[in-house]
């Protein structure tokens, strides 16, 4: 508990300082682009990489990336082949999740305490070039866990799939209010292959979780799943203090093939 309280005090000091400027302190620790007014989170170890809200112009950028087998074969969610309709749907979905949070933060600008919100106003990863322009390079989001088959009401051990109660368990997890420590979260992410292996996603997960997820969404418990064989993704989570809980070679069919699952878990230490 001690470390969390001291971090909160530190936050409030910065908070009060910012309240005296025109910047909305509710956006802390996000920065704001002075030209576009767009909030963004700068990665801790890669200052030229930022996470911003989605933009309409991102729609074409998703299409080649989610048709690239080095990306899409590791992801269960996005369809293949990935079309402009899929991309439009996805960017609009992300916008519909981020924009209300930004509005909520603006509406709460006179609130003296940082509010806890259901989601983040930021989602897409961009590289900032020397001339100040930026380019879309990936996606990272903390979402309510979509693996209800693992949250068995029958108390089955982790690693047993209860498909019958999947939807019920996801509905219960989705219904928990913002900041509820019982919420089980998951992470969805991918990065343009040109940027792989440079520590960017490890840093993106770390920065997002510690700068926004924990203090502003109240994230305390995460289950991250990867297909078996996805060494890079497993390493991203292990390097962020997740523990590998189990590996199962037959989990579910995705893109026409039976896929295995690695389940990694992160829980916030009870003393923070
Ligand atoms: C998984 C992914 C997001 C990792 O992003 P990244 O920025 O390249 O990851 P990092 O550079 O932070 O790498 C973390 C570790 O994994 C290693 N790694 C990354 N990609 C790897 C790969 N394809 N094979 C083996 N190791 C890999 C890195 O070398 C690093 O290890 P190290 O610290 O021991 O050197 C990226 O590879 C990707 O977009 N993959 C396709 C989509 C995907 O798998 N999404 C996740 C679904 S669960």
Describe the model:
The structure is a single chain. The protein has 272 residues and is of the alpha+beta class. The protein has one domain (2-267): Aminopeptidase, CATH 3.40.630.30. It is 33% helix and 23% strand. It contains seven helices and nine strands, in the order H-E-E-E-H-H-H-E-E-H-E-H-E-H-E-E. It has helices at residues 2-19, 59-66, 69-72, 84-107, 166-175, 200-217, 231-238, and strands at 31-32, 39-42, 49-52, 124-128, 134-144, 185-191, 221-227, 243-254, 257-267. The chain has a six-stranded antiparallel sheet with strand order 1-2-3-4-5-6, sandwiched between helices. The protein has a three-stranded antiparallel sheet with strand order 7-9-8, covered by helices on one side. Strand 2 (39-42) and strand 3 form a beta hairpin. Helix 2 (59-66) packs across helix 4. It is globular. The chain binds coenzyme A. It holds the Pfam family Acetyltransf_3. This is N-acetyltransferase domain-containing protein.
Observed structural traits:
binds coenzyme A; three-stranded antiparallel sheet; alpha+beta; Acyl_CoA_acyltransferase; GNAT_dom; acyltransferase activity, transferring groups other than amino-acyl groups; six-stranded antiparallel sheet; Aminopeptidase; 33% helix; globular; N-acetyltransferase domain-containing protein; 272 residues; disordered N terminus; 9 strands
């Amino acid at each position: 508990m001690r470390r969390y309280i001291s971090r909160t005090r530190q936050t409030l000091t910065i908070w009060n300082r910012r309240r005296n400027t025109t910047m909305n302190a509710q956006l802390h620790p996000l920065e704001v682009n002075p030209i576009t007014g767009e909030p963004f989170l700068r990665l801790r170890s890669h200052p030229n990489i930022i996470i911003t809200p989605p933009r309409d112009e991102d729609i074409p950028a998703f299409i080649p990336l989610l048709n690239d087998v080095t990306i899409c074969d590791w992801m269960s969610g996005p369809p293949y082949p990935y079309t402009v309709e899929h991309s439009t749907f996805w960017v609009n979905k992300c916008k519909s999740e981020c924009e209300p949070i930004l509005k909520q933060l603006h509406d709460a600008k006179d609130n003296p305490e940082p509010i806890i919100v259901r989601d983040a106003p930021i989602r897409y990863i961009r590289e900032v070039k020397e001339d100040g322009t930026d380019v879309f390079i990936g996606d990272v989001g903390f979402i309510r866990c979509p693996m209800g088959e693992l949250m068995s009401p029958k108390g089955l051990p982790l690693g047993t799939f209860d498909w019958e109660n999947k939807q019920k368990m996801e509905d219960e997890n989705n219904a928990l209010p913002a900041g509820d420590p019982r919420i089980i979260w998951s992470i969805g992410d991918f990065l343009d292959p040109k940027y792989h292996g440079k520590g960017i996603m490890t840093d993106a997960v770390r920065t997002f979780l510690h700068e926004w997820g924990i203090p502003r969404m109240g994230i305390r418990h995460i289950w991250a799943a990867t297909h078996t064989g996805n060494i890079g993704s497993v390493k991203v989570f292990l390097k962020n203090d997740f523990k590998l809980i189990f590996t199962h070679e037959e989990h579910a069919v995705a893109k026409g093939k039976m896929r295995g699952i690695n389940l990694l878990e992160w829980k916030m230490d009870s003393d923070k």
